[in-house]
Amino acid sequence: MTLVVVPMIVLYTAVLGTLGILLCLLVPGGAALMPLARLWSRLVLLTSRVRWEASADPSLDPGRPSVYAANHQSQFDIPALVLAMPADFRMVAKRSLAHIPIFGWALRLAGFVFIDRSNRESAIQTLDKAAERLRRGTSIVVFAEGTRSPDGTLLPFKRGGFVMALKAGVPVVPVTIHGGAGILPKGSLWIRPGAIRIHFGAPIESTEYSYETRDRLAERVRAAIAGELQKNLKKIT
To answer: What span, in angstroms and rounded, lies between the C-alpha atoms of 166 and 208?
Structure first.
């Protein structure tokens, strides 16, 4: 299946990414790219025979800019999350993705946030820019572990997304993604059909914390995601 899917994904990326670049040049700000990003995501999931479903805590207010902090199991988390997100958003990604021809160029023009964790000063400046975007009303998605989990279990959380929320004074929404590890585990090249479930948890107010207690905020979000993952495992067993 992988031999068929990968060339199709490359084709979708080349065609829609090129169109996205042109639209972003004509309409700065990135809003023009987001419908194309959702179309790309839908095509990728359909071609790969990956289903998705989403649920949300009743207290979630999509109209309120927030940091959406998600766990990360698979490359397919991204298209599923793009389709499931209830609000206008941009994602935080590692800096190397910005240099991928067409794909990275389109995301950069759309205002996606690229962070270089190896350069502390650059990372701080990036977080400041992302916080300003939050204050202007656009939500930010971060994969709190910083990388994909090799087996689906939660890794330690990076602090950047929580610092961003504190700087902007916005809530953090725990986002639990389950199922991706069975579709395309980290290190594997073989795509398996399956389903990805996404749950948007109750927002956690960052104003209840300070820079000094940012680790407590991260721990609270991590506990919420861990609890939701456990619920999904119980449903399966």
So the answer is: 9
Nearest alpha-carbon partner for 112 in 142, 85, 137, 86? 142
Amino acid (one-letter) located at 189: L
Give CATH superfamily name and number for 2-236: Glycerol-3-phosphate (1)-acyltransferase (3.40.1130.10)
Chain segment 4-19, per-residue pLDDT in tens: 788 999 999 999 999 9
In angstroms, the Cα distances linking 104 to 107, 188, 208 are 5, 23, 36
Residue 61 DSSP symbol: -
Residues near 25 by Cβ (< 8 Å), separated by ≥ 6?
109
Pairing relationship of beta strands 172-178 and 194-200 according to DSSP bridges: antiparallel
Tell me what pLDDT residue 120 has: 81
Q: Which amino acid is at 53?
A: E
What confidence tens digit (pLDDT) does each residue in 151-187 have?
778 999 999 999 999 999 999 999 999 999 889 888 7
CA distance 45 to 34: 17
- Token output for 223: 């506990």
Q: Identify any residues that bridge with 217 across adjacent strands, giving them in sequence order.
A: none
What lies within 8 Å, CB to CB, of 227 at 6+ separation is none
Q: 72 and 186 in contact (C-beta within 8 Å)?
A: no
Element (H, E) at 172: strand 172-178
**What torsion do the CA atoms of 40, 41, 45, 50 make, to the nearest 10 degrees?**
180
